[in-house]
Amino acid sequence: MEMNHFCLDVLQRITVPDFLDYMRSVFPYLYAMDADNSHMADLHIPDQAYMVMHEHVVHNRFPNLVGGFTAEIKPKLDRLVKIAQKERFYKTPVIDNPSGELVVEQTPIDVKAGDNFQITASLFNQGKETWHGYGSNPVLVSYHWQLPDGSEYLILGGVRTQLSASLIHAGESVQTVIEVQAPDRKGRFRLILTLVQEGVCWFEDRGFKPAIREIEIV
User: Fold this and answer.
1) Which end of the chain offers a freer environment for a tag, N or C, measured as fewer CB atoms within 10 Å?
2) What is the mean pLDDT of residues 66-86?
3) What is the pLDDT of residue 83?
4) SS3 content of the chain, % helix, strand, coil (to 5)
């Protein structure tokens, strides 16, 4: 199941503590999984539940819940965590020529200053190298905010979004939902949606074609 504090609070007027209280009343075994499955928390343990709530609201972690009626669910999740942690410490190959592009069909006309919003995009790997979304130097989706004339960056490297697939092989394309935070400053600005290999390079610096849109911040 997915846990989204914004949808719970704004759309349903349900707080995260109340939501978890209800879920615990239904499931005798209830666990929260981090976005990359590398960490798991037992929501029936108060300290772990508090940690999950804090990390979920502040850092957008632990979006996935797994409920069960028998203890058999725990060893299955333990195996999943071990696999994810092994991937996390994988030595990711450096991408030398990230040929490809990021394409979006629709972006909002205007956004309130400081607001978070989402953009659906398609990623195309048109090079000869595989893009790894995990390991020591994962490939992630991100963005820059820039003045319309390109003279100044308001935000150079925004929120990171994990790839929707752990691997994007040469010639493949995937669709993903990008998390974006608007700048605090009002005005018309350029949003550059792109990919980054952490600790290595921004893809557009090596030939990748980002998606560029102008959005009014109100």
Assistant:
1) N
2) 89
3) 80
4) 25, 35, 40
